[in-house]
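Lab notebook, bench 4. We co-purified these components, and the gel suggests they stay together. Before we commit to crystallization screens, I want a quick structural picture of the whole thing.
Request: model the full complex, all chains together.
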Amino acid sequence: MLILGIETSCDETSAAVVKDGKEIVSSIILSQNTLHGEFGGVVPEIACRAHLEAITGIIDNALVDAKIQLKEIDAIAVVNTPGLIGSLLIGVTAAKSLSMILDVPLIAIDHLHAHIYANNLEYNDIPYPAISLVVSGGHTILFLSESETRHIPLGWTIDDAAGEAFDKVAKILGLGYPGGPIIDRLAKYGNQYAVPFPRAYLEKDSLDFSFSGLKTAVLYYCEGQNARPSKATTSGNQEVADIAASFQEAVVDVLVEKTFLASRIYNVLGILTGGGVAANSRLRQKLKDKSKELAIPVYYPSALLCTDNAAMVAGLAYKKYLGGDISTLDIEAVP
Ligand code: KG4
Ligand code: ZN
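Here is the predicted assembly.
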């Protein structure tokens, strides 16, 4: 079964053709990073317009790459929640139109569940129940995953998402956008113990997250509470690398601690990760170390499947289709 997936929830316009929920026949991802870079974050109005300009071409490219024609598609899958409303609407409208014209099923997909499914595209041996950590620019959330399609939220961020903190700290340090991959690379040259930034574990056994205090701590460290000239911009690269590494370590410590706490509380058989921040090399390393220590397998998608892509959307749609979970043409985009 060939499913065409469409993803436009944030700032990537993506279309992919996936066979039987597993084989990525084609996957096209157009990033809007250069459009949002100068603002240090996604500008919803710009994102929506860029999706509108790109969507038909991206779908076309996905079909050309897959060497198939539109009429060979068996179903259309689209992310309809959560995300930026204007951005979601472009994908949802395209998907509804295609489903109607081709007379094939339409399958609405939750973006966060798709991030988790990215693991299933690459591994066959995932045990359930599992804890799934989705860490992206817009979300930081722990799920109890009972199957490939059933995910129960356990805890989430009460303020900034982890990726948002990476992006904002990169902006403070004058490093560019998106900040996550830049901080990841730079931190390799820094000392993670240089600055003791705070870790917000919240109350005992809490599975919620908070990163805004950490972001403010970095801001104060760099600029001082009285807005003195930025240390980061007046000091050499080594100090910037040390701040980046210390910040990253604080984020990673909290993510790892809470993920394994959830795995103990729910006595699960595995841990899944997904979302852009799941590409972070330090996070992967620390999860791997703890996974060995506690003998519980941790899965993470390859870097290209961590960030937003439509292959994970088309993949998950196949499982939903098999379960009879098909949408009607009145689905809405829900931010
Ligand atoms: O999943 P994603 O592509 O989009 C959302 O659904 O938000 O995630 C994008 C986020 C950005 O905040 C970006 O800075 C972060 O993921 N990110 C990373 C890394 N690669 C991307 N954060 C830390 N380390 C990375 N290697
Ligand atoms: Zn995402």
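The pocket of zinc ion (ligand 2) is lined by residues 111, 115, 136, 275, 308 (CB under 6 Å). Worth comparing against the SEC data before the next meeting. The CA atoms of residues 10 and 119 lie 21 Å apart.
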